[in-house]
Amino acid sequence: MDLDTAKQELEQFIPHVRNISDDSIRKMAGRDLVRFKQFKNQGIAVKFGRFSEKENNQIRKNIEEFLLITGVDSAEKLLFTSRYPEDKETINRLKAEHCFCEKLSEGIPRPWRLIYYRARKIFDPNNYKGRYTMDEKEKLKKYHALHGNDWKKISEMMSRSNLSVAMKYSEIKSAINYGPWSKEETQKLMHAVEEVIRRRMDIEDSLSSSEKSRRDILIDRERLYQKLPWTEIEAKVGTRYWRQCKQKWTAILTKKMTKGQQLHKGTKRLQAKINLIKRLYEMKVEDANEVNWEELSYTIGDVPKAYVQAKFYKLKVSCVPLWQKKSFSAIVDYLFKKTLPELEEKL
Fold it and tell me: What is the distance between the alpha carbons of residues 286 and 26, in angstroms, rounded to a whole number?
């Protein structure tokens, strides 16, 4: 299949495909196109974004079945073969013979590359080692000075995952301020976000006027907080980590959208929690990815969805014992049956 045909066929599944590199498009045409067409025939759309627990379990199942077929004794060897040079040739031969790419992506309507990265995150034993010590932070700075952004090499030297060392370095690469935001920092943040949004609007100017008239109502507010490039914004602010920037921007938007009202004070605080629990329970969803957080924002006030997600997180952490080991639906059930009556009594 030639490149233009591949782009044209993939575009029905991935609208932004023409922004992807030619090499990646060729790989997707080989690994994903047939799968995407099969999913389309079943009425299943290709997904992006956060993986659901169901998808995570399907990845675990696919890996487990492939290990049984091949006799390879660990998922780490399959996904991090370069760590085992003595077994590398044998493992790669088995992966080719038994179609590892096809098996790993079985039953998951996503690009293979995203499934592979997710599997590596799930099964990397170096990915769950807790907080970095001061000694590790100093080593990370030293290794980065020597090797730049070669995160694979640095991760091997530190026995941490690629993602972990890259994100940690992003956090410590400059003097991050953890105190209250200064007026100057807040202005930098607002200018950085404005710059990003204006750039997006310039790109959207290429749309036809009819397309813009249909979309303006829907995206005017959404573009203020959805899918902003926080690492870029972090670099423009200079003194804050990207997560701090995101939280501060959410707080600014919340104050603007609620005209400065305190939503979570006194009886309003209790009523907001009650409303949130009831709406989540009524939705009867199995996974957090299935929740329309935008719709839920109107349950507790005209606020960004990130505000609602943060409130739900605090609710489950403070009220649900062993919440880390419970599914999303089990957490909501507990909140509805145990926490809700207590809140209503207080109210």
Answer: 35
